[in-house]
């Protein structure tokens, strides 16, 4: 873990090196106040990430399709008030030579599909977070992208900026409610390269007028030094809640309380709310020990719905009394609810499992950030294995 001294030094460097924002998006106390008012007026985010159908052999089943609308209906029936959409760009490997915005469909088609998907969600009464995502074809983790040379990094920055700005324009035109400027870009935003990301954010601000977040990985959010430039601290919250197999729910909840305490300190340091841009646990024994392990790489897995449900319970429950906690997005269901080919049974989706009951209970709970006594229209609370007696 990098020292906090380095983090503070880089944070100061960001302020010094950034200089004034472009004329198209001047730093404005009025705009900042409006964004703050928008955030303060929100009830807690009760969100579900809806993944695209990542296979060109399944046409008319992705974002903006009739099957997608059924997923929206299911989400509202669970009590969700938000959905997150994740259009992907393709990166060939960790050399970071550029982002191909085409992902199994022409880019113009993808943009139209997302715009349609946002409009459909809004028509169902759901708010939308748009999260432009990166898929690395080599199978490596996007957080480790490293073009190595100054020239390589500059080319990578220009390509990524073009990619994310295209989606920022869609977000602005579609009235998206929250926009993530990046996902797990550790090699960029936790290193001396971080100041260059301020220019990316400034260009997004000049394009998209709503609130922005950044989806940091759970184990590097403390080292992410661009947090002062965004409105909401986003965390992909795949936190381990225990360090050994067989931990009972009481021990997992203690792990959730440690996460809460850590993030309370982070929120106070930056004076910004925190949202879990992703939370999830796979449906297998002891998922809270190594939550980030991808289900596609697993073989011979025993399905364990109780373990998944308890992990959800343990992470969410300690957050309910924290006014700085803006809410969470469950990772994830898919645009076509009938397509089970996207993920193994032991995967992350809570749909139709015991963990769905926990999610329903969490959505029906009152959180400290809520501005109303209770959000109307929520379904009745599930009895087991959720929060309510």
Average pLDDT across residues?
A: 90
List the total number of helices: 10
Order of helices and strands: HHEHEEHEEHEHHEEHEHEH
Low-pLDDT stretches are: 12-26
Q: In angstroms, what is the radius of gyration?
A: 20 Å
User: What do we call the CATH topology?
Assistant: TIM Barrel
CATH H level, superfamily name:
Glycosidases
- The fraction of residues in strands falls at 5-15%
Number of strands: 10
**What number of structural domains do the residues give?**
1
Name of the CATH first level: Alpha Beta
The quaternary structure here is single chain
Strand neighbour order, sheet with most strands: 1-2-4-6-7-8-9-10
Helix content: 25-40%
Structural commentary:
- The protein contains ten helices and ten strands.
- The strands form two sheets. Strands 1-2-4-6-7-8-9-10 form an eight-stranded parallel barrel, surrounded by six helices. A two-stranded parallel ribbon has the order 3-5.
- The protein has 389 residues and is an alpha/beta fold.
- It is 37% helix and 14% strand.
- The chain has a single domain, classed as TIM Barrel (Alpha-Beta Barrel), CATH 3.20.20.
């Amino acid at each position: 873990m990098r020292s906090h001294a380095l983090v503070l030094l880089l944070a100061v460097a960001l302020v010094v090196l950034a200089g004034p924002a472009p004329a198209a998006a001047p730093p404005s106390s009025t705009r900042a106040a409006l964004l703050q008012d928008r955030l303060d007026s929100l009830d807690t985010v009760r969100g579900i990430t809806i993944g695209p159908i990542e296979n060109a052999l399944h046409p008319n089943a992705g974002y903006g399709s009739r099957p997608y609308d059924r997923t929206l209906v299911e989400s509202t029936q669970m009590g969700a008030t938000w959905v997150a959409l994740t259009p992907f760009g393709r990166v060939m490997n960790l050399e970071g030579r550029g982002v191909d915005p085409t992902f199994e469909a022409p880019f113009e088609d993808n943009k139209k599909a997302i715009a349609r998907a946002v409009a459909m969600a809004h028509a169902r009464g759901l708010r939308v977070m748009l999260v432009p995502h990166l898929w690395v074809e080599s199978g490596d983790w996007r957080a480790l992208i490293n073009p190595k040379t100054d020239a390589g990094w500059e080319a990578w920055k220009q390509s990524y900026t073009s990619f994310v700005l295209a989606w920022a324009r869609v977000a602005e035109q579609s009235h998206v409610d929250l926009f993530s400027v990046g996902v797990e870009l550790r090699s960029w935003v936790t290193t001396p390269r971080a100041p260059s990301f301020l220019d990316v954010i400034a260009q997004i601000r000049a394009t998209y007028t709503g609130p922005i977040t950044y989806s940091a990985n759970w184990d590097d959010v403390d080292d992410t030094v661009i947090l002062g430039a965004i409105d909401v601290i986003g965390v992909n919250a795949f936190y381990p809640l225990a360090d050994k197999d067989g931990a009972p729910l009481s021990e997992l909840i203690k792990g959730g309380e440690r996460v809460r305490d850590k993030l309370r300190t982070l929120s106070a340091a930056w004076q910004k709310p925190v949202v879990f841009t992703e939370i999830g646990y796979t449906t297998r024994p002891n998922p809270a020990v190594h939550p980030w392990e991808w289900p596609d790489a697993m073989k011979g897995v025993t399905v364990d719905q109780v373990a998944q449900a308890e992990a959800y319970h343990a992470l969410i429950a300690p957050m309910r009394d924290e006014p700085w906690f803006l809410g969470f997005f469950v990772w994830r269901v898919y645009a076509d609810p009938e397509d089970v080919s996207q993920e193994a049974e032991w995967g992350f989706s809570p749909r139709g499992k015991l963990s769905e009951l926990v999610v329903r209970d969490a959505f029906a709970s009152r959180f400290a950030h809520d501005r109303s006594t209770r959000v109307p229209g929520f379904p009745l609370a599930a009895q087991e294995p959720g929060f309510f007696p």
